[in-house]
Design a protein that fits this description.
The chain is built from 20 helices and 2 strands. It has one domain: Cytochrome c oxidase-like, subunit I domain (Cytochrome C Oxidase, Chain A), CATH 1.20.210. By secondary structure, the chain is mainly α. The chain has helices at 10-19, 23-51, 62-96, 105-127, 140-143, 150-178, 191-223, 236-270, 277-290, 306-318, 320-334, 343-366, 368-374, 378-408, 414-440, 457-487, 526-532, 555-571, 579-599, 609-621; strands spanning 547-549, 605-607.
Length: 622
Amino acid sequence: MSTLSQRKGFGATVWDYLTTVDHKKIAILYLIAGGFFFLVGGLEALFIRIQLIKPDNDFILGTTYNEVLTMHGTTMIFLAAMPLIFALMNAVVPLQIGARDVAFPFVNALGFWLFFAGGVFLNLSWFFGQAPDAGWTAYTSLSMASQEHGIDFYALGLQISGAGTLIGGINFLVTIINMRAPGMTYMRMPLFTWSTFVTSALILFAFPPLTVGLFLMIFDRLFGSNFFDPALGGNTIIWEHLFWIFGHPEVYILVLPAFGVFSEVFATFSRKRLFGYSSMVFATVLIGFLGFMVWAHHMFTTGLGPIANAIFAVATMAIGVPTGIKIFNWLFTMWGGSIKFTTPMLYGVAFIPSFVIGGVTGIMNAAAPADYQYHDSYFVVAHFHYVIVGGVVFALLAGVHYWWPKMFGRMLSDALGKVTFWLFFFGFHLTFFIQHFLGLMGMPRRVATFLPNQGWETANLISSIGAFFMAAATIVLVFNVIKTSINGEVAKGDAWGDGRTIEWAISSPAPEYNFKQTPLVRGLDALWIEKMEGKTELTPAEPIGDIHMPNSSILPVVIASGLFIAALGFMFRNEHGWGDVVGGIGLAITLLGMFLRSWIDDHGYHIHKEELMDDDSKEVKA
């Protein structure tokens, strides 16, 4: 066994997490970092709602308001929702397919540290007093005119963070294709694994357009090129195309794992096999495919013409079909089931009508002539938040409550979880439902203030009150985490008692090697099949033997830190002579880390079967 993993104390624990390549610990790192950025983005949202709580308010105005608005959207999408999705993927997918780790553990760690370096770099802009101020989409007509370094922080930070996401997606694709346990055919994979598979494919094809767009923006701003300057032959609409070719699949990169979470939750707490499994799989794949056909519905008002608008409108409406299939299958799964209304199940039941509202308003926006009226109004803000909060955030809260015992070995308090749910559910609808009507009454999005006697005062007040309910829910959730970490109920392997998939067949939390013996998967819902035959363990596909494990490494931190330093240096190249030097040093650090990774002959270590037998005897005694 690695001696590092046996040490105790704060310093050793920090070093362990800095150098880990274990997917389960990387999941915890994603959860902590994503949770922190979720709190930051939520605080920024509160500032926005405080500013709009009454007419002619002066809480935050002008550039500061634009910075808070921009950073709220950017933080929530890129630095909160994405890493929290990756936290669940890392924690669950290798266990669900019977693997001992992801295909490339080192790359998995590098993906996290690149994301984290990019996120810290982006938020460093606050300390320089130069946060991005052109909206989370950073349309180049605004971002090219921004005088300070805020947009540079945006472009460089998202470039680093996006590289981490891209290699993470590739890693999960290879893992799911190559590392499934014997008998785990594609059509026996749990729905969460299927949604991860399709999401990873979307990441593979969606992030390169964003990478290209950000590169062009960086070259325009730091190196004097003119890709987006119309006066010099550039074209600002090209940025919109590149951004939304990424941006709309990004919605499904977030929503498809949410669908996967709820598919697991509904089946477990209805004590039934998921209704229409095959149709759910094909609906997931179809949504992923169609997600690339609809990006220009964000651009109906840019003058693409009626033919282009009609094509993208029809393609957008077509996505409603596979999504509807999913909704009905979830309802049929619950129909006739023995339902337990646990905290995850409450989020699942609340998700269906909430997400349907977001979907219906999406179809309304997809009608191009109507979109000319809705565009850039609070109607779009309401629609977007019903999809992202009513879909993704509800799923993240459900997934965290559902798999928390598998990640940490303790149960979150179900009573406190339900308090969180009701506060959040009530606050969410209070905040965003009324914004549909604000939009229809003509309130534009992104405005810092409004005049009295426009008929918007009451609706904005109600919306802001709802935001404080969501803040209260978040505080209760944090309290729940702290309280149960200290004296929470110790979780069994099958923490909920009704687990159907094989992650519930091993101890909670999972051992570092995941499975002592690679399991033999005998059908869909493999653990449930074993339970129906009176067994408590999975049928093994191999005898107990030595298990090969990868060594920890500090090099992912080194590589990510080098890119952080390089970005900081190149950003100041036009004002300070040392900018290029610092940038070069940063790149040298990154290249040195990559060289050392290639040069050092690292064979890992083995956990011997005698140690595994000792673990068995300790479990029996316990």
